[in-house]
Amino acid sequence: SGSSGHTFSKAPPGPTLAMLCCCGIEEPKKLELADAGVAGEDQKLTFVPITADTAKELNEDLPEQKLPASVRVLGEDGQFEVRLDKRSSGSYGFSLEYDFKDSVHADAKDPCLLLSLHGGAAQQWNTTCPEQRLKVGDRIVAVNGTSGASQAIFDVIKDTQEATLTIQRPKELKVPIKNCRALGLDIAYADSAVGLIIKKVNPGCVQKWNESATSKVSAGDRIVALDGTHTGDSEVAAATLLDQLKSKEGEATLTILSFPPL
User: Fold this and answer.
1) Cα separation of 62 and 6, whole Å?
2) How far is CA 214 from the centre of its chain?
3) pLDDT by residue (tens digit) across 197-231?
């Protein structure tokens, strides 16, 4: 930490990134993860693509099937239902952010988030149902009736051919900042996470904004753009966002995805 008003500190060596690929399981890779303000935590996030290559490696049958097109809006809390069948395309077409069940969560809300979108059943869904299209940063609240920890949600998705997802769309907050050197935020980051994870809101520009805001920034929310737009199609890499934030002086606008409690 320092005079900038926000904390970025490296986690101790050790956390690793496991990735499924077409040839099976790769050697673990180092995971860039900052322990923002709490020393000694061994925190991990993981990124596992669910791809057509993975499906073929597992010798799965991929019969052609039509994607169900119906959408059921669940309520006013930003939740809706998506039905995906990966058998026609060979993949769900998304990658997920989730926490290992034996790790100390970098994000206390433990969300299972869409990290990237790349074809497959997700693209089919988005083409068929553009009014409820999947976006990077969407939270999977439940799959096929299973809810709870992100690890449990991921385990169901990776072992099924058809998935009924309950999706929670985060609120997108535009937070004007007068001085980027005094944000007052503790932040964690990883290449396998959606945006920069806000771990704590301390006295500073963001806390001052919260005082008059209807929807407030809180721990677990994600910074996804600095003076930019969150499209939901792809994201700026966390490390790039962090560099932008460190080098920015004066006024700026933060785009923050805010996840209401479940």
Assistant:
1) 49
2) 23
3) 998 999 999 999 999 999 999 999 999 999 987 87
Rounded to 10 degrees, what is the CA torsion of 121, 115, 110, 208? -130
For residues 198 and 143, give the distance between their C-alpha atoms in angstroms, rounded to a whole number: 26
How many Å apart are CA 158 and CA 206, to the nearest integer? Answer: 38
Predicted structure pTM score:
0.70
Contact 187, 107 (CB under 8 A): no
Chain CA centroid to CA 22, Å: 23
Sequence-distant (6+) residues with CB within 8 A of 152 are 101, 146
Judged on CB neighbours under 10 Å (0-12, 13-18, 19+), 88 is middle
Percent of the chain with pLDDT over 70: 67
Binned at pLDDT 50, 70 and 90, residue 92 comes out as very high
Instruction: Tell me the HSE value of 27 on the side-chain side, using a 13 A CA sphere.
Output: 1
Amino acid at 103: S
Distance of CA 247 to the CA centre of its chain: 24
Three-class secondary structure assignment of 35-64: CCCCCCCCECCEEEECCHHHHHHCCCCCCC
Closest among 252, 257, 192, 259 to 224, alpha carbons compared: 257
Helix, coil or strand: residue 209: helix
Q: Are 19 and 26 in contact (CB under 8 A)?
A: yes
Q: Please give the structure tokens belonging to residue 204.
A: 């500073």
Are 164 and 239 in contact, with CB atoms under 8 Å apart?
no
